[in-house]
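Q: Is it fine to ask for two folds in a single conversation?
A: Yes, each is treated on its own. Send the first.
Q: Here.
A: Result:
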Amino acid sequence: MQEFLTIALIHFVAVASPGPDFAIVVRNSVSFGRRAAMYTSIGIGLAIFIHVTYSIVGLSVLIKTTPWLYTAISYLAAAYLVYLAVGALKSGPPKDGAHEVQNGAIPQATLSDKKALWVGFLTNGLNPKATLFFLSLFTAFIDVNTPLNVKLGYGIYLAVATGAWFCFLSYLLSTSKVAQLIGSKGYWLDRTMGVLLIGLALKLVWSA
C-alpha cells in the first residue's frame, strides 16, 4: 500500500504539470470541443500502456542507455509537436455565429473521434520525457521483487488515472461558464498552446 501511494502521488504531480499532453488537450478542447478533447484524453491514457510495457520488460533502460535511439525518439517527438503547433498557430477568429456555446463547448472546426484518439496517443507515446518518468518509477520506486501482476495493476491504474485526469480537464475547459469566458477569443488560447508546444519541442531537441 505504501508503494502504491508513493506511485500515485508521484504520478499526480507529474500528470498535473504542464507538458505536451496538457497543451494538446487544452488545444483540442478550445478548437474542437469537449468530445474531441475527451477522445484525446483517452488516447493519452492508452499510450501509458506502451511506457508501462517496455518499463516492465526492461526496454526503457535500453532506450535510455542507447544514445542514438533516445535522440531519434526525441527528434521524432519534437517534429510531431511542431506539426501540432503549426495547426494551433494557424487558428483564427471564428466565423460569425460559430462561437455559440453548444454542449458546453465552442468548436471552431471538427476533428474525428479516431483522429483525436490518435493525436492523444501519439503525443504521449512519442514523449521521451514519459520514458524517463516510467524508467525512474519502475527502477527507483517499485521494488524489483514486486510481483508482475502487481506491476501490471500499477500500470492499469496509471493509464486509467491519466485518462481520467485529462477527461476531467476536458470537461472543465468545456463547461458553459469557461466556454463563455473564452468566447470568441478562444483562438488566442489555441495560439498560446501552439507556442507552448514549440517551446516543448525545442526543449526536447536541446536536451536530446
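Q: Second one now.
A: Result:
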Amino acid sequence: MNKEQLSQLRTFYKNQLLNDTMPFWFPRSLDTEFGGYLLMRDQDGTLIDDDKAVWIQGRAAWLLATLYNTVEQRKEWLEAAKSGIDFINRHCFDTDGQMFFHVTRDGKPLRKRRYFFLRLLQ
C-alpha cells in the first residue's frame, strides 16, 4: 500500500469508529445507576441482558480511555472510562485477588471461572 491508500483507510476507519460505532454504544450503554456499561444489546440497540461480563467492562473502559488519550480529550469519554474502572474495582475482584467472570448489573458475582492452565502456572 502507498501513503495515499493508507491515509484513505485511516480516514475510513476513523469515520466508522467515531461516527458509527461509538454513537451506537455510547452514551446509551452507560449504566448511570450502578456504573460500568450495559453492553448486551441487539443490533437495534435494545438491551437484551443487564448482567455484565467483566472482560467486556474492561475492554469498554480501555476503548474510552484510549480514545480520550489518542483521538480527542472529550470529557464524556474520560468520565465514561472512569465509570467502568470504578465498577471493576468495586465489584469484579474476589477476596482472593482473582476476578469474577460475570456479575449482575449491580455487581454481585455470578461466575468465577477457573482454568486448568492457570493452575499449572501456580
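Q: Anything structural to flag on that second result?
A: Two points. The mean pLDDT is 93. Helices lie at 3-25, 54-70, 75-91, 116-121.
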